[in-house]
Structures are given as C-alpha cells and as structure tokens.
Amino acid sequence: MIVEIECLANPAGTPESPYKHIEAAIAVIQRSGLAYEVSALGTTIEGEPDELWAVVREAHEACLAAGAAGLVSVVKFQQSAAASGAPTIASLTGKFR
Questions:
Q1: Whose CA is closest to 21, among 6, 39, 3, 36?
Q2: From start to end of 16-93, where are the E strands?
Q3: Residue ranges of the chain with pLDDT lower than 50?
C-alpha cells in the first residue's frame, strides 16, 4: 500500500522555525522505519495497511502536539487487491529519476 499525506498546519511553524509543525509530522514518518519520500507538497509512504493507518494518524496529530493551532491533512491511499503487482514508490516514479 502507498499513502501520500500533506499536512496543512496553521501556522506551519514558528518565527524561529518556519516549518516546525510540518517537520514534526515528517519526524514521525522517519521514525516509523517505513520507506518514504518527502516532496515539496507532501510525503509518500510505503508499507502494510495497518502500519500506514497508524503512521498517518500519528503524523497528523504530531502537528498539533508541536503547537499548530489548526490542521487539515490531505491523505491519498493507493492499494491493490492482488498481493503481486502492488505498486511501490519505485515502480511509480522510477522512470522519472
């Protein structure tokens, strides 16, 4: 399964650390041990469904715990019913690297 999450924290950070609240979400994803890629407008994560649901929730809540006054998270899930041939980050983006 692949998930992309975009955390739209309000504010995104503090004057001293302009993306502090967003970086809190990315830190959760980094600690998860799952394969991920940070891009300009979101982070893509690859793993098993139960792992991903938990990480997405924790990343969302990390923005608020870091001090964001409000938050909207946009999440996209991609999953295949068949175990074989399930897309991966590399299979979807590899030819563009």
A1: 6
A2: 35-39, 42-46, 70-78
A3: none
